[in-house]
Design a protein that fits this description.
By secondary structure, this protein is of the alpha+beta class. The chain has two domains: 6-79, Ubiquitin-like (UB roll); 92-181, Alpha-helical ferredoxin (Fumarate Reductase Iron-sulfur Protein, Chain B, domain 2, Orthogonal Bundle). It contains ten helices and five strands. The chain has helices at residues 24-30, 99-105, 117-121, 128-137, 140-146, 155-159, 166-181, 186-196, 201-208, 212-220; strands at 6-11, 14-19, 50-55, 62-65, 75-79. The longest helix has 16 residues, at 166-181. The mean pLDDT is 94. Bound molecules: FE2/S2 (inorganic) cluster. The site of FE2/S2 (inorganic) cluster has 13 residues, from loops. Residues 39-42, 44-49, 65-67 line the site of FE2/S2 (inorganic) cluster.
């Protein structure tokens, strides 16, 4: 762990001295900002805390999640809790999982230049350029797979010279994949039918009446991979 040191950072252009052990989010709060927008899970998962920053003497523009990125000396920070992006309106059950659907709802998908700025700007290190290439081929399953961890922060949108709406195109593909293309789990349908028929009512009632400590013990000693 880094030795505690007080370092200068700049928040919206104003200089503050903060401990170097803090995340950007911690430093914002240390500096007195009360976070209402731009904060959510605090665990690098929800995408609410996107931050753009530069370091002194370095021309590169960096992007990170405020809750998961440590401060560095001379950081110039700007929070971007939301970035506007084109968002198509549709009813999923009226769509077909085809390339034509993607192009009809998001015609700009064909304008992707393949420059890779989106991939460079993704705080989750997703291969955004690759999933956009898959979208241009109509490979909906591949888009769904490559974009699975997208947190919809919009940083790729903010940097895209072709004015794409990558996260919205990707979530359309994940929805199409989930509804129409993913293999159906037959055993799941069977289990739901069994539950609806009341097969587990008695066991569920018994579990509901079990004290918490006993439930914990049962959980911790359960047979995880029964033969
Ligand atoms: S607060 Fe959710 S990703 Fe940072």
């Amino acid at each position: 762990m880094a030795e505690l040191e007080m370092i200068p950072i700049y928040i919206m252009g104003k200089r503050y001295i903060v401990p170097n052990t803090l995340t950007i989010m911690g430093a914002l709060e240390y500096a007195g900002y009360k976070l209402i927008r731009g904060v959510g899970c605090r665990a690098a998962f929800c995408g609410a805390c996107s931050t753009v920053y530069r370091l002194e003497g370095d021309p590169k523009l960096y992007i990170g999640l405020a809750c998961g990125t440590l401060v560095q000396p001379g950081m110039y920070l700007t929070q971007i809790p939301f970035y506007p992006a084109e968002r198509a309106q549709y009813r999923l059950h009226e769509l077909e999982p085809t390339f034509a659907t993607l192009v009809r709802l998001y015609p700009q998908v064909l304008k992707c230049l393949g420059c890779g700025t989106c991939t460079k700007s993704c705080p989750q290190d997703l291969k955004v350029k690759d999933y956009m290439a898959a979208a241009m081929r109509g490979d909906i399953a591949r888009v769904a797979d490559l974009s699975f961890d997208c947190i919809m922060c919009g940083m790729c949108v903010s940097r895209c010279p072709a004015e794409e709406a990558q996260p919205n195109i990707a979530i359309l593909c994940r929805r199409l994949y989930g509804k129409y293309l993913a293999p159906r789990a037959q055993h799941l349908a069977q289990r739901v039918a069994e539950i609806e028929a009341g097969r587990y009512d008695e066991e569920l009632a018994k579990i509901k009446a079990t004290p918490e400590a006993e439930l914990r013990h049962m959980y911790n000693t359960r047979d995880i991979e029964p033969e």
